[in-house]
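# nightly structure sweep
# worker-07 picked up a monomer target from the shared queue
# config: single-sequence mode, recycle default, output format = structure tokens
# input follows
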Amino acid sequence: MEKKDGFIAINKEKGCTSHDCVKQIRKLLGIKKVGHTGTLDPQVTGTLPIAIGSATKFIQYLPQDKTYIGQIQLGIRTKTDDMQGEIINKKNWPILSNKQLDKYLNNFRGIIQQIPPKVSSVHVNGERAYKKALQNEEFELQPREVEIKELVLKKWDQANGILEIKVSCTSGTYIRSIARDLGQVLDSEGCLLNLKRISACGFHEKHSIKISDLSDLSNKNAPFIIPTILALDHISTLVLTNQEEINFWQTGRAIKFDPNNFVKSCSFDYKKPIKIIDNKKLLLGIGFMNEAKTQLHPKLVLNAK
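# output follows
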């Protein structure tokens, strides 16, 4: 079987775990090196990028922003902060206009401190929080800084206490926490009713496919496998122009930094990754400049093919 590398944007269905998707694709592809770019809860649908082959090495260099469409149910608090959990309190919600509700949402825009749900994958003393919660252990989670880059009120159903929001945020943000905390801000309760992720790590729902549609993953011309180099289009690109540079690179040695070889705008920030390619646009890996901006040091080197 021909070696495959790249990403598949899966449109995950409700009830399927991220690991289930990985296992199914691993079986269909017949290779072990398959990984997802971040857990998506079983009840959440939408975009789940899957890395295959050498693409698994580049997951950390993908854009980390994610966008969701979610419905929040006011008046109800559950143990899991969504409708799948046991109800622990009910309380009336206030009468609000769309404009008034939107002002309350200002509490969740920008850089905020957020406490994750207790039923989450956050580590607590080396153990996942959800495991502790399932064992009815008492513990507290510390707030974490996240950034809500966009929060749009799309619909407000006063009679049923249901609002629909669009949220663009950094990795590690919990929409369930927004639902819970919004209820408290309104002197009511809140939990997540439904959630769909429409984009993640540079991949969008409109370009994703369902696993059930992957009838022939062994096809070497499979159009749904997105080349790794395209998934890294947001990263500055440097071309190695001669074989000596390439040899140095592939043996893990630093090379002289030449800004004239950049084919994509670069801020010359030594803290930012740089995508390395050759004249044939073959991806060679990821490097970083030294602080003096005189050398490029290999960080991730792909083996020559």
